[in-house]
Amino acid sequence: MELVVALVSDLHFGPEASFGGKLRKLTGEAPELTRAFVRRMNEVTRPDLVVNLGDDIEDEGPEADRERYGACMAALRGLKAELFHVAGNHDVIHLSEAELLSAWGRPEATRLHYAFDRGGFHFTVLHTRERKDHDISLGPEQLAWLGEDLAASPLPKIVLMHHSAADQDLRGNRWFEGSPHICLVRERRAMRKIFEEHGVLAVFNGHLHWNHLDVIRGIPYVTLQSLIENLDDDAPGRPAAAHAVVRLGPKRIVVEIEGAERARYQFDRR
Ligand SMILES: [Fe+2]
Ligand SMILES: [Fe+2]
Hints:
The chain contains five helices and 14 strands.
């Protein structure tokens, strides 16, 4: 029995903007790239579930964010597969946790971290919080909850989060070279220890706008490229159109990165 999980990240619905005078995020193409992802999932991949790893918007202001986040959710709701969400840093600047939970169709929930079981696997969703230009943290309460949540489940475990818990070599990353504090979670060593103690199979995240794989003490940490990243240096632009298809099987995990930059990773389950 195999569970197929599709991942998409950093959809960034928002206005056209340049970064350092260059067009780096193809925000204007986000709605169409999202619709194309939804079509591919529904017609070709047919995953059991889809996870949105966060940063759905560009944080323009409360009203614009509400509208853009709503547009992103509406596009993703075209998916036939069950859909789960992770909160990204841009999503929580102007929108409240209650607004996000309501947009996620979880109005009864009170927090953005949660867990669920599907197809014989336990999925733990974290909410890493970014203090702009300062740091990214899970915080002591959620760190304690993470240990308890993983300890309580006998199932094989997958962790989903927006920022990274790996120690990535950031050389060559357009957005974060020389700035680990705004892409890697401060408590990452403690988190990895918890993942190792509880036999986590793999960890998936977005945020860094590149494809990157770290294997640390046998656990793969997979960073997924942004859906709307411009793979060229400037305009007119060539969208990454990235998403991942993760096949969780009894003996191995196979990850296929689809879009303009393709890759394939395979891990045997210990
Ligand atoms: Fe992002
Ligand atoms: Fe982000």
